[in-house]
Design brief:
Blueprint lengths: L1 H33 L1 E6 L2 E5 L4 E6 L12 E6 L6 E7 L10 E5 L2 E8 L2 E3 L3 H11 L4 E7 L5 E7 L3 H13 L4
Antiparallel strand pairs: 1-2, 2-3, 3-4, 4-5, 5-8, 6-7, 6-9, 7-8, 9-10
Length: 176
């Protein structure tokens, strides 16, 4: 009987260990998809997602439950195809044919928009946006929604320069 109890305990421990390992691997895989935080400060964080590095922030206004949370950031990739590309997840889907503007330090930047997203238009604009963001303060992304109502997603730039630099450095180090 003692021998049977030992085998049962041993088998139970093996099953528990296997379940723990499977749960740990699943959690690690989910974390890898979200990325690893490099640095976080102010309202910004730099995240290494493996194939890209991003500096991200969420809008000052927190979205109600069930609504889209507006976010904005700058993306970098080790192959440098994306090097400071600005992107924003908009709180509203913009009206077809309407303009979506990013305003940083009173400088307007016309963005490319599709569905609920907006992006910078190319490397020269991306560098100008980053330079403006280094001035601090706030930025906003604005447009008109499907009903024609104006919306604006406002962001603090507190911590943005550090997050941008950390994301760029992390991806620059991968290209060697």
């Amino acid at each position: 009987m003692h021998h049977f109890g030992y085998n049962l305990r041993s088998r139970t421990l093996r099953i528990a260990g296997t379940l723990f390992l499977a749960a740990w691997l699943a959690a690690a895989a989910m974390a890898a998809q979200r990325g690893v935080t490099i640095v976080a400060g102010g309202t910004w964080a730099a995240i290494d997602r493996g194939t890209s590095c991003v500096a991200l922030s969420r809008s000052v206004r927190i979205a109600p439950e069930g609504k889209v949370q507006a976010t904005a950031g700058f993306a970098f990739s080790p192959d440098r195809r994306r090097w400071g590309e600005f992107h924003a997840r908009l709180s509203h889907i913009p009206r077809a044919g309407s303009s979506v503007m990013l305003i940083v330090a009173n400088r307007p930047f016309l963005l490319v928009a599709r569905d609920g997203w907006a992006w910078s238009r190319g490397p020269a604009q991306e560098q100008a946006i980053i330079a403006a963001a280094r001035g601090g303060g706030a930025m906003r992304v604005e447009g008109r929604d499907l009903a024609g109502r104006r919306f604006a997603d406002v962001y603090s730039l507190d911590g943005a320069p550090t997050a941008i630099d950390a994301a760029a450095a992390a991806c620059a180090g991968k290209s060697r």
